[in-house]
Design brief:
Layout: E1 21-22, H1 36-43, E2 54-55, H2 66-71, E3 72-87, E4 90-105, E5 121-124, E6 131-144, E7 150-162, E8 173-176, H3 181-185, E9 190-200, E10 203-212, E11 220-231
Parallel strand pairs: 1-6
Antiparallel strand pairs: 2-7, 3-4, 3-11, 4-5, 5-6, 6-7, 7-8, 8-10, 9-10
């Protein structure tokens, strides 16, 4: 286990180096149910979001995200895709898989260095001919229920690309479930063909696989998991 340098910080007074951001719409299974552009137009005074951001399943206590945000050192990703399509009368099947891809910090973000961060803690793989992967975590959002209680959500941004038969598709990737390229691009060729929940340190993240259906690919299968988490000790 890597050992971090001990430190003390009051942060923003909530145990994190940023203020929590309020949401006007309650996420359901990781999604706001609308595009980010629609949300920002209607509710931008609350807090704006970007198009690729997703939300974890809700927690009643934001401290549940503390270990992942502050102490996550590295983890591994496994993913697989397979699809069949017909072009010029010929049926083809392409597939690809990667196992235990190491995801390391994309910058020098030892826990004490996250105190002055902007909220994002980013991880990425070393690019190979088979995959290109990145995931970042933070900041934290909340939604206030009608009874005054609050639910908290760790935001994340993911992009996992797997080569199929040695070829990187142009737009076939794993994303957070709230990814809205489908509805905001106006291109009906994009479709979500897989939805699943991955878990890291007890935090559930809803993911989708977006398939660019240029050749009418059917069927499409996809799977993804996160394993091998390593955390800092003190």
């Amino acid at each position: 286990m890597p050992t971090a340098i001990k430190f003390n910080s009051s942060g923003a007074g909530n145990g994190f180096p940023f203020c929590f951001r309020e949401l006007a719409v309650k996420p359901v299974n990781g999604s706001l149910g609308m595009t980010s552009s629609a949300y920002n137009t209607q509710y931008g005074d609350f807090s704006r979001i970007n198009s690729s951001i997703g939300f974890s399943r809700g927690k009643s206590d934001p401290k549940d995200f503390a270990n992942l945000y502050w102490n996550l050192y590295s983890f591994t990703v496994s993913a697989s895709v397979s699809y069949t399509y017909t072009v010029n009368g010929s049926t083809r099947t392409e597939s690809g898989s990667v196992s235990n891809i190491q995801m390391n910090r994309s910058s020098n973000q030892e826990p004490r260095e996250r105190v002055c961060g902007t909220g994002l803690v980013a991880y990425e793989s070393t690019f190979t001919k088979d995959q290109e992967s990145r995931i970042s975590f933070g900041p934290i959002y909340y939604f206030e229920n009608g009874d005054g209680s609050k639910e908290y959500y760790l935001s994340f941004d993911a992009s996992i690309r797997v080569a199929a038969d040695g070829f990187f598709p142009d737009a076939d990737l794993f994303y957070s479930r709230n990814f809205n390229w489908l509805s905001s691009s106006g291109d009906e060729g994009f479709e979500s063909v897989w939805e699943g929940v991955i878990t890291i340190d007890g935090i559930q993240l809803d993911m989708i696989y977006i398939f660019f259906d240029i050749f009418g690919g059917d069927p499409v299968t996809a799977e993804m998991s996160i394993t091998g988490t390593t955390f800092y000790t003190y």
